[in-house]
Design goal:
Structural class: alpha/beta
Helix content: 25-40%
Distance between the termini: 28 Å
CATH class: Alpha Beta
Low-confidence stretches: none
Number of helices: 12
Radius of gyration: 19 Å
Order of helices and strands: EHEHHHEEEEEHEHEHHEEHEHEHEH
Shape: globular
Number of domains: 1
Strand content: 15-25%
CATH architecture: Alpha-Beta Horseshoe
CATH topology: pyruvate-formate lyase- activating enzyme
Largest sheet: 7 strands, mixed
Length: 294
């Protein structure tokens, strides 16, 4: 499997507004051989036009998806905090606050990633948001409106940790949430990219959840992501560092012998770690995704 810590984009596009931001400088300093292009706008069409990779990609959704996973756009904070809600009776999961430090997916190539078709037609690139002080101000505004705890999910639009070796966002936000009275940070990941967060003063205000699957299923369908044992070892490390740990088995894939296979998967998880919660999901396939398959 891919060593997360070795991954770098093939091209970096930067909104000129944030070219001198410390997080931007940190990112490009860690990618010294990667071409960098500056643009005036965050409009998707402008980003595609500025990108040598994207504007020269052959037509077709798959080509766009694959090319976009090689391009990072560094953007201003904009509206980095909002509420995720869907007015649909089929959904039973609660509404939650999104923290959009990154969006449009990540460089993993999981076959069932809904972000492939949710955003790739209009935004075929990975977006990273900087201007952390502005993002913190948005979070604080939401926290000041609530007398009860508020949890912010950083993994709904991208993997929370896959690019941490380049971004370093969690070294900024985990301690910040650790000083909050009622703010909690939720990280959802397939990454093993945890070594840089193990020493952080999280003060029990960070929850890290691993998206996992049966080992054989993961090997076949979660291309580029760390393998089962790598994720399990990373989960062990963060639990040993005192973080709240959860596991997400999603999607459960039906195949011959799946019951025994997933029972073994769960047993292996509990031999290594003690998650506070396990969430189970199924395959989802919206009609709109099928209609846009080409």
């Amino acid at each position: 499997m891919t060593n997360t810590n070795l991954w770098k984009p093939a091209e970096i596009i930067i909104n000129k507004e944030v070219q001198d931001d410390p997080a931007t400088i940190n990112f490009i300093n860690k990618c010294p051989t990667v071409p960098v292009r500056l643009i005036q706008s965050s409009a998707p069409k402008e980003i595609v036009r500025a990108s040598e990779i994207l504007r020269n990609t052959d037509a077709g959704m798959l080509n766009s998806i694959m090319a976009g996973k090689r391009v990072v756009f560094i953007a201003p904070a904009a509206q980095a905090v909002d509420e995720f809600t869907i007015p649909d009776d089929r959904f039973v999961c609660p509404h939650f606050e999104r923290l959009k430090l990154a969006s449009n997916g990540c460089f993993y190539m999981c076959d069932w990633c809904y972000l492939k078709l949710t955003y790739r037609a209009q935004r075929p690139f990975i977006t990273i948001r900087v201007q952390y002080d502005k993002i913190k101000a948005q979070i604080k505004k939401r926290l000041d409106q609530s007398s009860t705890p508020v949890i912010f999910n950083s993994g709904e639009l991208a993997d929370s940790l896959s690019m941490e070796h380049l971004v370093g966002a969690m070294r900024e936000f985990i301690p910040w949430f650790g000083q909050s009275n009622n703010g909690y940070l939720f990280l959802l990941t397939k990454s093993d990219n945890v070594d840089d967060i193990l020493d952080l003063p999280h003060n029990d205000h960070a929850v890290i959840a691993w998206s996992m699957n049966n080992e054989a299923v993961s090997r076949r369908f979660e291309i580029g992501a760390p393998g089962f044992e790598q994720r399990l070892e990373a989960a062990y490390k963060v639990q040993h560092a005192g973080y709240h740990l959860r596991i997400r088995l999603d999607p459960i894939v039906p195949f011959t012998g799946w019951e025994a296979a997933y029972a073994d998967t769960v047993a292996r998880i509990f031999r290594k770690v003690s998650p506070e919660r396990i969430t189970i999901g199924t395959l989802r396939f919206e009609k709109q995704f099928y209609e846009r398959r080409n």
